[in-house]
Design goal:
This protein is of the alpha+beta class and about 240 residues long. The protein has 3 helices and 12 strands. Keywords: Membrane, Signal, Transmembrane, Transmembrane helix.
Length: about 240
Amino acid sequence: MKLNISLTIIALFAGLLALTDATVLYDRDLTLHSLASASSTSTTGTCANNTCSPAGAVDNFNDPDATAWISNPSPTCAQSEYFHADWNTTIGPVKLGVIRFQFGDRASNRATLSYVQPDGVLVPTTIGMVGNDTDHFYYFNMENAGLAPVATGVRITFTELVANNGLCYVSLLEIEGFATDGNLPSQKLSSGAIAGAVIGSIAGAVILGSASYFFYKRMHHKRVQQQVMLQSLTREA
């Protein structure tokens, strides 16, 4: 019986690790050479000859270059512009962990993320972008939000565009996407909630198993063994 209790604890701890020990795979850019599109594209001035097309933002990995997507400049600001990257034909459906991007010479004050399901449905998220002063990327961290949706693409929608020198537009220098290998749920559930549920199951298994095993032992021996087990569980948790 004691062996069965130990095996139960080990199995439940393994389940806890499988649910919470997720890793973002930063060695492979999902958006690299993906099918890129946008709500509008500048084709005038330095952007003539298709030099500012959406493809310029998905042509490098971890090495942003001078090529960028630039939306159509206008004296008045559009309500929104979007950039869309689809990796369904290059990679296929994957569990999405992180999307990050760099602005070009013109940023917007706000950006929101949506992901594309394998059936083509666009699903908006409420994840806010977080800037990183070290690498100058803005991050949408799905994994930190407790999400790992299976996706074939993403769309970033830029709002609150900024006018300067009589022109309003937004520029995207680079976008990168990364999968996660974690067993996170497709619906939002924090890792703390997952851990609490599994630890609760472990505690329940210990109590039930202990009652069965120590039923035939002296009461003093029962108390000592229970204290040892609970201390061990506390240290591992």
